[in-house]
Amino acid sequence: MARALASLLLCLALPVSAATQVKVDTNLGDFVIQLDEKSAPVSSQNFLRYVEDGSYVGTIFHRVIPGFMAQGGGFDKDLKRQPSYAPIKNEAKNGLSNLRATVAMARTQDPNSATRQFYINYKDNNFLDASPMNPGYAVFGKVVKGFSVIEKMTEIPTTTIRSMGMKDVPQQPIVIEAIEVLKK
């Protein structure tokens, strides 16, 4: 009995690995994304690659649609597309759903085309989940702190830039000023 109790106490004392969290500082304030590396390992590692190489710094949220989502990470404030690593495999069938405050990979019509752009859901957008008729968009994390900053993005009027084929572009740039993995 004593040995079983000692074993149980030892298990309770062992550190539990915490989920990776990334702090994003913008010119509107900061927020924290918690990654789900277990359910979305490819998307999480891809996102962390851009965080760690520093290339998200200076990029903007270039598409903000109130009641839907805010998309960023791919363009600088002059709307110049930023270089990307190779596209990744779509992990939309990972069991995670596009719910309010979740973070997912943006992509083109090709399901396996996600690179550096990500979006944050303003509401439950289950129609973006994988289904038999839809390859879906891969959720890989969730905003766990500072969602009010994401909501503040909707207060900035948007415009259409026809020459670039871009809609819902904030008229005042929402810039990622710093981004870092928080210490566990």
From TrEMBL:
Cleaved signal peptide residues: 1-18
SUPFAM superfamilies listed in its UniProt record: Cyclophilin-like
Every PPIase cyclophilin-type domain range: 25-181
Recorded coiled-coil stretches: none
UniProt keyword annotation of Isomerase present: yes
Domain of life: Bacteria
EC top class, as a word: isomerase
GO function terms (MF aspect): peptidyl-prolyl cis-trans isomerase activity
EC number(s) reported in the record: 5.2.1.8
Protein keywords: Isomerase, Rotamase, Signal
Swiss-Prot/TrEMBL catalytic activity: [protein]-peptidylproline (omega=180) = [protein]-peptidylproline (omega=0)
An annotated GO BP: protein folding
Keyword Repeat: no
Functional summary from the UniProt entry: PPIases accelerate the folding of proteins. It catalyzes the cis-trans isomerization of proline imidic peptide bonds in oligopeptides.
Similarity comment: family membership: Belongs to the cyclophilin-type PPIase family.
Designated name of the protein: Peptidyl-prolyl cis-trans isomerase
Organism: Photobacterium aquae
